[in-house]
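Forwarding the complex inputs:
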Amino acid sequence: MLRVEKLKVGGLPPLSFEVAEAECMSIEGPSGSGKTRLLRAIADLDDAPGYVFLDGAERREMPAPQWRRQVRYFAAEPGWWAATAREHFPATADPERLGRLLDSVGIERSLLDQPIGQLSTGERLRMALVRGLIDEPRVLLLDEPTGALDQQSRALVDELIKFQLLAGRVVLLVSHDPTEVERLAHQRLQLGETGRRTGSRSQPVVNGSAI
Amino acid sequence: MNYVTLSWLDLAAAAVLIVFNGVLSWTLRLGLERSIAIAALRMLVQLGAIGFVLKFIFDQSSPFVTAAFALVMVGVAGHEVLARQETRIGGWTAYGIGAGTLFCVGLVATIYCVTVIIGPQPWYDPRYLLPILGMILGNALTGVSLVLNAVTQAARRERAAIEGRLALGESRFEATSGVVVHAVKTGMMPILNAMAATGLVTLPGMMTGQILAGVDPVEAAKYQIMIMFVISAATALGVMLAALGGAWLITDGRHRLRLEALQLV
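Prediction (whole assembly, two chains):
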């Protein structure tokens, strides 16, 4: 259970909400309304007053790296620091699991050893998703995970997110695609231009038999 | 040792050359005569003053006066580190990293040099200690400024990569390790080049000075070799300390990248 209490992000009023295991909350609002800043604050990448609890433990109770191993921010434009994608994965990563994840988002396994610059924007975005999922974080903060993807890849990534929900992950999703939000989100957080929050609970869409 | 001392008249004869430069600039309308005059005057006053100050310190040969002057040198060098940054970084932390690094490196290398290697009597004889500290600080200063500049510039450029690593749960030093390694290489470049090119392209200033002062060229070369080892070791140490200091400066205790704290964004 991820619980956010009176979290103060940028010019927004303090935010409080809860997202349970296997639940997805979408965060919507126009550009500049603070969606990315909210996700970054939850991952403790930006300083923000207020509280974020994961199963009752507040983020400041543990070293930040330990928090981020469980509460993972996926950037809309992921950064790379080594020559090939493979060098970004921990050496201890299970090759079998890595292969399965790559297959699930439709990435050729051989792309792992290509220079990272030769991957397309969409391939890099999906590669970063796989990288972030390999060590099984419990909370996924997804910042436009399908923003730069074509229809087919988008469907694959949505399936992967559903599968993560089935595995009991907490998902916070920033997306500009209404149908994606419709398919995945159990609750929606609206960040208006005035920063007014209009939360609502919609029908759960994911169920055990979906995949 | 014997050398020809310069009279005041000799200096005036040399100054005629710079006056000639000024006249040339004026007749050709280069507009440089004001800059030439100011630079020449500054050089004259600064070098003249330091000559008298050093003479006073050498006459005293007091460890306290020597230490006080050494501290002033470190303080000015620390200020110079910040002045040489492409992007202004300010604040006492940044100054402390520059000056603190130079202080540690200058202290260790200079004391090692005068006690273990040269061994004058007494060991704090300012005639040895201060010029050696000056050479160490001058070179370490170049390295440290380059390193801090490289760290802050790379952090701006590679912000997404560093934050990507932080988001995966790496610590502030793991996430900036690529930047730090690159910065250390940049900082070491001038001293490595200087060692490789010395004697072929240029004669180092100290060796030239000793030769003019009547020292046997082989003896002068030995001194120069010794000082090269000392300053490159000191620079390497300073560069590494400054790179880690830089990584510490651009991040915070919660392992976040804090470029806005440096007004780097």
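Residues 200-211 of chain A have pLDDT under 50 and may be disordered.
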